[in-house]
Amino acid sequence: MKLYEYMGKDIFRREGIPVPRGKAFFSPEGVADFVSGLPSAVVKSQVLSGGRGKAGGIKFPGTPAEAEAAAGELLSTVIKDLPVHAVLVEERLQIDKEYYVAITVDGARRKPLVIASAHGGVDIEEVAEEHLVKMHVDVHAGLQPYFGREVARRMGLPPDEARQLSQLLVKMYHLFRTYDAELVEINPLVVSGNQLVAADAKITLDDEASFRFPDWLPRVEERTEKEQRAAEIGISFVELGGDIGVMANGAGITMATLDMIHHFGGSPRNFMDAGGGAGTEATARALEILLSTNPKAILVNIFGGITRCDDVARAFARVKETVGIPVPIVIRLVGTNEEAGVEILKQQGINAYRTVQDAVARAVELAAGKEAI
Amino acid sequence: MAVIIDKDNVILVQGITGKQGSFHTAQMLAYGARVAAGVSPGKGGWEVHGVPVFDTVAEAVEKHPITSSIIFIPAPGVKDAALEAMSAGIKTLVIITEHVPLHDELDIMAYAEKLNVTVIGPNTFGIISPGQSKMGIMPNSIYTPGPVGVVARSGTLSYEIAYNLTVNGIGQSTVVGLGGDRVVGLSFTDVLEKFERDPETKVVVVVGEIGGNAEEEAALYIRQMTKPVVAFLAGRSAPPGKRMGHAGAIIERGKGTFASKVAALTAAGAKVAVLPWEVAELVKEALEG
Questions:
Q1: Would you tell me which residues 324-353 of chain A have a C-beta closer than 8 angstroms to some C-beta of chain B?
Q2: Can you tell me where the transmembrane regions are (chain A) (predicted)?
Q3: Is B246 annotated in the active site?
Q4: Which of A76-80, B80-84, B265-269 has the lowest mean pLDDT?
Q5: Domain range holding A236?
Q6: What's the ipTM?
């Protein structure tokens, strides 16, 4: 889960990472008052996508009244399809230099990775490889001050900045570990006077670790309402917009099922990975979500391993008997407890397919309105 | 011969008294795998499908000649269970559990590197050497012994491929699931190196998907391999910026695309199948060639 900048900066402040004086507002009320206490101000829309400056999401008002007007204007805009719910009003910094620093996970090396550059303030993907400092962290050793000094040396920083960067990295790493972050990024990290200050804050938390933070869960909505309902029952669901509702078990086979639908000339309405080991209850609720998207046909592709075919079949029987299944449905069912599952479906008048190519081809025909055989 | 596990593999099941642990212990036993013991804290003295249960891994290891452990513990307890197994001297670890926190995975892998432990997963279907041993949740019926090594990021998709090989009369030496998470214990290259050295494996099948650069890195090693490689990749039609189930299965900033992976693998000499059922055909050609 990505956090908004103001949430990230709240965490930075708590962890002792220097940030500009600032406050988040959810309505323009009080902005002028707050700005009158600052030498000069910047008003930043709080959105998760990058490039908000280019999209007009950052304003530099001259007076407190202008700041309040700018906040009102930004709070009524939509940036890249997302309405702006909050603005961050901050002291405008004097910027002498802009650096880049981030901690992320290098999956290939299975280690935290620090990426830093003296060429900050721009999209880091556009910075040439020779201007990037990359150093892996050993989780047993942790990130000690020496590590930060070495990063600073490779960046070519003067001694006072090196000392500050070293302290900053130790704090960033502490945050990265204690908050279960996937990414902690500061871009730009500015030199203002002789102070390093985090002018932006990008933090992505690991959703899988949310059980460790029962009392402190920022709500950031990136999902549609149906995606949210699916997430609540532990199912991964992405809306795609075609006409064949798809359910499969396992991310890889679900993706391959979508590919096969395209191959046969059809168009999937969604990605739905009903997950490993989904029982009758979860499968039934997943099917109800699928039905609520009004597909022209439904294709189910189950290769049961940890998922048991009889559990899946029972879910379909239940939904058919209770709420009904008003669209054509094609089920491919093989694997663990296959015979029992096929039998349960047969009692419901549904013939399960064994091979995926037959099932996909049939679903594409049905969605195109071809007569049932 | 096979890679990582063979007929001499003696298995411990951590979380054996849970629903999944118990069910798949029965499946592994039915396959003929040597499940010697289980661990479930507080349930020492129980038996599950005739397998004795202990409170700690150390106790299980004292009493049985265990060589490997499979973990069916809920995500919050996986780090504890994995470190317990490694501390007790177990050198092969299969972690079935999905939704394990990223930082727990970092801690597990750092300890595994230090103690030289092979970790399969997390979020994997496991590993099977057909006819010899099985540590995982894959259906028993879809494999048969033979000359093809299979390494996959995704479980059910690998079932599809293995099943197709089997019905076409082509057996497998070992089928390994790397796991769908961003941090897992083995890379494609780690497993390809093992297949390259395994005398029984004649052809290798790589089952990959969009996102990350694991397949591109594998391609660098495939260049040097003497054995033919056939690949299948999922996600050809996936839109950019959408996470397709697996944490890593996302095309970000134009990286990790289907086209880039196909190009890298093809340039390395691998044959890439367009549809899953074409894999068996390409493998057959490679075996005959």
A1: 334-336
A2: none
A3: yes
A4: A76-80
A5: 225-367
A6: 0.90
